[in-house]
């Protein structure tokens, strides 16, 4: 995931090749380049004349090349690569955000990403793909990160990894982007207690120009942005980063992505529950149940913004609980409130249906 043009699709193509060839020279000797995702880019010769390099036939509904700042990748798609021992790595490439078509397009793409994540069932890593040369926390970078993070429960944030592309110029380090990302992480920690690591163990730096060089060669276009030695080095660094990334993911415990839907729907039904609560006098027990659920929502998701609901609970004598409930704890509270008692207000039925659905899923 990440901003449009960060190099997500190129990275997936790079990985496909790094897993096949140890060195750029080996790949060249084999005279073969794998482009699992069609790609297209322009290189300029010494007279600044542009030459198009094009690999694979792009279906416009999947990869739509344009020079308008629109996201090239149109929808999330999974790519699988064998990594030995009968194991596969499954990577989902996604459309980029901060699309020049504006907020509406970003919302559409965000929803496509959210659905793809929920459908996959289990995720071992949430990879943010970034470029190393962003020295400011621009609105584009900040909103992209905030929107994407808002999909996940806080528990999933241990799986956040940062993948840098284009990093030869910064010696395969995150470079100036360190500042804005660190600031954003600090802000999120202050705002909602989200903990995101940004350090040696979850930063992986690549430069996929070795892959671009191979594509250009296959199209008989001279690619001379750097020396052959630089491309060989890029290949070596990017391949090592790919291997470290795979090793890291292998040891990661996956999280159940259906939880995302659970919290989103819980937010929705809780809003209705709140409408009912606003107008009634309730026992301390019942106000505690409502308060605990909204407090849990507020604690668990970034950007759900349930503060208004927490305030409502407090106005009904709710005090913040001493410990945070987990998913099953919340299910039990809802069960107590809506199944064990025979409430006859509309929302009760809706919540019962919601509970039935999730009780059997997990
Ligand atoms: N030199 C260099 N160019 C890169 C690298 N990664 C990507 N590019 C180029 O940057 C441009 C954008 O790359 P894409 O892979 O299409 O970016 P994306 O993140 O998939 O973009 P969207 O699909 O629009 O979200 C292309 O011209 C790539 O060839 C890199 O590591 N080094
Ligand atoms: Mg793409």
UniProtKB/TrEMBL annotation:
Keywords: Nucleotide-binding. SUPFAM superfamilies: P-loop containing nucleoside triphosphate hydrolases (SSF52540). Coiled coil: none annotated. One of its GO terms (molecular function) is GTP binding. InterPro entries: G_AIG1 (IPR006703), P-loop_NTPase (IPR027417). Residues 63-167 form the AIG1-type G domain. The keyword Nucleotide-binding applies. Belongs to the TRAFAC class TrmE-Era-EngA-EngB-Septin-like GTPase superfamily. AIG1/Toc34/Toc159-like paraseptin GTPase family. IAN subfamily. This is AIG1-type G domain-containing protein. It comes from Panagrolaimus davidi.
């Amino acid at each position: 995931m990440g901003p449009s043009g960060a190099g997500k699709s190129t990275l997936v193509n790079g990985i496909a090749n790094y897993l096949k060839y140890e060195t750029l020279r080996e790949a060249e000797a084999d005279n073969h380049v794998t482009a699992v995702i069609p790609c297209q880019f322009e290189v300029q010769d010494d007279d600044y004349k542009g030459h198009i390099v094009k690999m694979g036939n792009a279906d416009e509904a999947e990869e739509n090349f344009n020079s308008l700042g629109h996201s090239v990748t149109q929808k999330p798609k999974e790519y699988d690569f064998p990594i030995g021992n009968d194991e596969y790595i499954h990577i989902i490439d996604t459309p980029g955000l901060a699309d020049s078509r504006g907020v509406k397009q970003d919302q559409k793409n965000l929803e496509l990403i959210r659905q793809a994540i929920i459908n996959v069932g289990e995720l071992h890593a949430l990879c943010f793909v970034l470029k190393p040369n962003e020295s400011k926390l621009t609105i584009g970078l900040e909103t992209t990160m905030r929107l994407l993070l808002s999909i996940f429960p806080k528990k999933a944030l241990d799986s956040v990894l940062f993948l840098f592309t284009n990093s030869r110029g910064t010696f395969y380090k995150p470079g100036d982007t360190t500042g804005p990302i660190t600031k954003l992480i600090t802000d999120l920690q202050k705002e909602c207690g989200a903990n995101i690591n940004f350090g040696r163990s979850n930063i992986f730096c690549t430069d996929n120009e070795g892959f671009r060089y191979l594509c250009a060669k296959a199209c008989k276009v001279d690619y001379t942005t750097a020396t052959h030695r630089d491309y060989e080095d890029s290949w070596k660094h990017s391949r090592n980063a790919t291997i470290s990334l795979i090793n890291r993911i292998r040891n990661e415990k996956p999280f159940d992505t259906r939880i995302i839907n659970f919290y989103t729907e819980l937010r929705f039904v809780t809003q209705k529950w709140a409408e009912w609560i606003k107008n009634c006098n309730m026992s301390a027990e019942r106000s505690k149940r409502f308060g605990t659920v909204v407090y849990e929502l507020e604690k668990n998701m970034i950007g759900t913004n349930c503060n208004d609901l927490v305030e409502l609970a407090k106005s009904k004598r709710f005090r913040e609980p001493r410990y945070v409930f987990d998913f099953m704890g919340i299910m039990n509270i809802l069960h107590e409130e809506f199944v064990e008692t025979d409430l006859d207000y509309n929302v009760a039925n809706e919540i019962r249906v919601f509970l039935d659905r999730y009780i059997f899923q997990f």
